[in-house]
Amino acid sequence: MADINLKGMGVALITPFKEDESVDYEALDRLVDYQLQNGTDYFVVLGTTAETPTLTEEEKQKIIDLVVTKVRGRVPIVLGVGGNCTRVIVDKLKHDNFEGINAILSVVPYYNKPSQEGIYQHYKAIAEATKLPLILYNVPGRTGVNMMAETTLRIARDFKNVVAVKEASGNITQMDDIIKNKPADFNVISGDDGITFPLITLGAIGVISVIGNAFPKEFSRMVRLALAGDYESARTIHHRFTELFNLLFIDGNPAGVKSMLSMMGLIENKLRLPLVPTRIVTYEKIRNVLQQLNIKC
């Protein structure tokens, strides 16, 4: 198993769409360039923020190919491979081509609401199906079930290729418990932009970010300063973005960040149903905050 450095700011890439709802590959190409030029440490492709459930298999493959070709090994690429049918994921991991992919991010199964033992057995099957480093993803607000700290730690201890957890439970005590009791070679990554700074002070190694799509330079700087122990400088940047963190998710993800990117002229403000753009009132609030931050829009 190859080592992967997940320290810093990973960006959960959005999928840009044209007005006719087809994938805007040219905009995606520009967005990857923008990220590479502005300090993004690694990419997460086909995560929640990419509206992955609305993409066809052909579109998913074209997106993977574009990002892998564009990045050319300069930074790691993490691929979202998750679902609520363990067999399907195992089959995919055993038979798909993962050339150019450095790690897998796999979400806790959603909708079927497995027990903690079910979650453990699910990840056991996945870990045994691939040699790639595996990142667990706990996001109970979306999945309907919380992976408890004990379950995360049990998986981390039992499977050497399980290298990290993206924690988006919103429960700082739970995250701190994992950080306190984890194996030395297992890491905690923030899954929530708004708590990245406090979580790094507790021992997390960075974030898989949504806001980093729009502000890779500023947000990656905040992460690096916090990791270096310069908490005062990091806190200043964190507080500059506090209002945007709230506006980012008020109408769902990635509606907030797509509205920001469209204001910045990087993409069309288009999502695929069942997701829709932010309400006008949110859009205007975001525009006002961007102007206060001296960001052209």
In short:
The chain is α/β, with parallel strands linked by helices. The protein contains 13 helices and eight strands.
Brief descriptors of the model:
alpha/beta; eight-stranded parallel sheet; 297 residues; TIM Barrel
Uncertain stretches: none
Query: In angstroms, what is the radius of gyration?
Result: 18 Å
Total number of beta strands? 8
Q: Report the β-strand fraction as a percent range.
A: 5-15%
Shape assignment = globular
> Total helix count?
13
Residues in helices, as a percent range: 40-55%
Give the H and E element order. EHEHEHEHEHHEHEHEHHHHH
CATH class: Alpha Beta
Task: Kindly report the CATH topology.
Answer: TIM Barrel
Mean of pLDDT: 96
Major beta sheet summary: 8 strands, parallel
| Distance N to C terminus | 44 Å
What is the fold's blueprint, element by element?
Blueprint: E1 8-12, H1 25-37, E2 42-45, H2 57-71, E3 77-80, H3 86-95, E4 103-107, H4 116-129, E5 134-138, H5 140-143, H6 149-158, E6 162-167, H7 172-181, E7 187-190, H8 196-202, E8 206-209, H9 216-227, H10 231-240, H11 242-249, H12 255-263, H13 280-292
Parallel strand pairs: 1-2, 1-8, 2-3, 3-4, 4-5, 5-6, 6-7
Helix pairs in contact: 1-2, 3-4, 4-6, 6-7, 8-9, 9-10, 11-13, 12-13
Structure description:
By secondary structure, the protein is of the alpha/beta class. It has a single domain, classed as Alpha-Beta Barrel (TIM Barrel), CATH 3.20.20.70. The chain is built from 13 helices and eight strands. The protein has an eight-stranded parallel beta sheet with strand order 7-6-5-4-3-2-1-8. The N and C termini lie far apart (44 Å).
